[in-house]
Amino acid sequence: MRIADISPSYTVRKIDAADIDDVYALACKNELFYRYCPPFVSKDSILSDMEALPPNNTHDDKYYIGFWTNNHLVAVMDLIMNYPNPASILIGFFMVDQAFQGKGIGSNIIRDLLTYAKNLGYVFARLGYVKGNPQSKAFWHKNGFCETGEAYQAQGYTVVVMEKRLAEGN
How confident is the model at residue 169, as a pLDDT? Predict the structure, then answer.
């Protein structure tokens, strides 16, 4: 997978330790997200998220990536390939800088990602949003994701699983 090819509109690359301050600054502005999905972000939690993997996946499947324009971090995404099965991708986390929200930028990034994943042969995209968060729910519905009927408990909140079919197959 060539990360730089995910979006023609943004510079896309893996986030590394040198980017932590930028990720932290972006995340701190999104208080609504952390109201539903505590605890509030910290630099240590970002470093931990950069390493976290679902069961049976390796770091070869994980892409903790940033979307930049004019050297400004616009969005952050935790992307897991081949999860929960080889035909699927998982968007483990996606956040747009608050200054760029409401302008279609997040939807454009998701559209670019889903087109790229479909072209790679993936059939499904999955994610979870925190039950009760109206902003997240509305965003994912607007982008064609539907609840699967699955949900699970995390620490202090419920995650609702959503999915979107990208292509025919499997």
Answer: 54
Q: pLDDT by residue (tens digit) across 114-165? A: 999 999 999 999 999 999 999 999 999 999 999 999 999 988 899 999 999 9
Domain span holding position 58: 3-165
Q: Please tell me the distance from the alpha carbon of residue 24 to that of residue 19, in angstroms, as a whole number.
A: 9
Name the token pair of 65. Answer: 């990536």
- The answer to whether the beta carbons of residues 77 and 67 sit under 8 Å apart is yes
Q: What phi and psi values does residue 64 have, to the nearest 5 degrees?
A: -95, 100
> In Å, how far are 82, 119, 137 from 112, measured between CA atoms?
18, 11, 20
Task: Decide: pTM greater than 0.85.
Answer: yes
DSSP SS3 for 126? strand
When pLDDT is cut at 50, 70 and 90, the band that residue 56 belongs to is: confident
Query: What is the domain-level CATH number for residue 72?
Result: 3.40.630.30
Q: Using alpha carbons, select from 53, 75, 57, 52 the residue that is nearest to residue 65.
A: 75
